């Protein structure tokens, strides 16, 4: 699976926020560099994992963090060149089940740190849940 370009992702973001009926997703294989660095830092084997970005997640980010929406276009850059990655456990409000997430941090201009939170699914999918400027 070929990595989408920044333009492909930006186009997807635009379609997702301009049409509330648009219900698509982009799926791509995690970059090799990401897999290697996550294994080194967290001892997690992410081989054969894919990343999924849904239209719903884009609209969620726009609703909660509208000024940060432009950074979704940088998701490949964030995943490949993150400055820090952490595993977090979050309890689902609906089911009470504990969910595993990966948080990728990256420093952009003016020391602004961005966070991408990806939910790990059993079927080797990292699903984008949110992205925002960390305070």
Describe the protein.
The mean pLDDT is 90. Helix 1 crosses helix 3 (55-64). The protein contains four helices and six strands; from the N terminus they run H-E-H-E-H-H-E-E-E-E. It has helices spanning 6-18, 32-42, 55-64, 75-80, and strands at 25-29, 50-54, 84-91, 98-107, 113-121, 125-133. It starts with 5 loop residues before the first helix and ends with a strand. Strand 3 and strand 4 (98-107) form a beta hairpin. It is 30% helix and 34% strand. By secondary structure, the chain is an alpha+beta fold. The chain has one domain (6-133). It has a six-stranded mixed β-sheet with strand order 1-2-6-5-4-3. The radius of gyration is 14 Å and the shape is globular.
Keywords:
single chain, 135 residues, alpha+beta, 30% helix, globular
Number of domains: 1
Quaternary organization? single chain
Order of helices and strands: HEHEHHEEEE
Largest sheet: 6 strands, mixed
Largest beta sheet: strand ordering: 1-2-6-5-4-3
State the helicity in percent bands.
25-40%
- Number of helices in the DSSP assignment: 4
Q: What is the averaged pLDDT score?
A: 90
Q: Spans with pLDDT under 50 lasting ≥5 residues? A: none
Strand content: 25-35%
Tertiary shape: globular
Q: What's the total number of strands?
A: 6
Structural classification: alpha+beta
Q: For the record, give the distance between the C-alpha atoms at the N and C termini, rounded to a whole number.
A: 35 Å
Radius of gyration: 14 Å
